[in-house]
Structures are given as structure tokens and as C-alpha cells.
Amino acid sequence: MTTKRAQALSRIAASVFILFGLLGFLPNPIVGADGYFLANTQHNLLNLVVGAILLAGSGGESRAAMTLFYMAGINVALAILTYAQVGFTSYVDVFGVIRLNFPHAWLHASLGVLLAVSGLLNTARQQLFWD
Fold first, then answer.
1. Maximum Cα interatomic distance, the chain, rounded to a whole number of Å
2. How many CB atoms lie within 10 A of CB 59?
3. pTM score, two decimals?
4. Domain boundaries in the chain?
5. CA 110 → CA 2, 56, 80, distances in Å?
6. What confidence category does residue 97 fall into, taking pLDDT thresholds of 50, 70 and 90?
7. Is the dihedral of CA 51, 34, 30, 74 positive or negative?
8. How far apart are CA 58 and CA 130, in angstroms?
9. Which residues, including other chains, have CB under 8 Å from residue 70's CB and lie 6 or more apart?
């Protein structure tokens, strides 16, 4: 049995989110309270939840593509909310809970585009070859 493309991409994205979520709890210069990508405990927990959702959604090919699209929408929305609120401050608490800075907003925007393209590649292939 081979792993399909959307399932593999969903599992890779889940691994990255889980890794960033766990890394945020450890002192490091990359992600966390003092990292380049500013994140508080709630943001780290959100990364773990998103990783778990992507992992759970990677069971079937079409379900994996749909999960990638949903997570892409959430990441892009989070980036837009951050861009709208950050202004000239060094960070913003989106919804008063999730701490983000400008580089982190760019990361979420990029992840959103990457997840959307990953889901789109799978659905376009199915429409071309299976309909």
C-alpha cells in the first residue's frame, strides 16, 4: 500500500506544527517567548492542536486534501488578523490570546499558501484523472 501525496503532505505539515509546538515550550532562539518567531503558551498549544488535526485528517486522500485546505484558511486568516493589528508594535495578541509578531505572521501566510497548494495539487489530479 502506497501513501498518497496529500496524505504524505498532511503528515509532514503535522510533524512541523507539532515540532514547533513542542519547541516553543523549550528555551531556544527560534520559537517561543524570546524567539525570533514570538509565541506564547496558548500559541504553542494551538500549534500542537493543528498538528493533531492534520495528523488525524491524513487518513484518506480526499480527507487529507480537505484538511490541508481548512488549515490553510486558518493560517491565512491568522496572518491577515496579525497584519491588521500589528501596526508599529513589536507583537500583537490576536483575539487577546495568541501572541504573534510580524515574522510569525509571514510564516503563517507562507504556511497557508503552502498548505492550500498541497491540497490543490491533490484535488486537481483527481479531477483530471478520475472524473
1. 52
2. 11
3. 0.81
4. 5-130
5. 28, 22, 12
6. confident
7. positive
8. 20
9. none
Asked if 64 and 12 touch (Cβ cutoff 8 Å), the reply is no
Distance between CA atoms of residues 6 and 68, nearest Å: 8
**Percent residues over pLDDT 90 in the chain:** 24
Q: Which H or E run contains 57?
A: none
Task: Report the residue count for the chain.
Answer: 131
Residues 99 and 73 sit within 8 Å (Cβ to Cβ) = no
Task: Please check the confidence at residue 10 and state whether its pLDDT lies above 50.
Answer: yes
pLDDT more than 70, % of the chain? 88
β-strand partners of 93: 99
Q: Give the model's confidence band at 28: pLDDT under 50 very low, under 70 low, under 90 confident, else very high.
A: very high
Residue 45 has pLDDT above 90, yes or no: yes
Q: Are 96 and 26 in contact (CB under 8 A)?
A: no
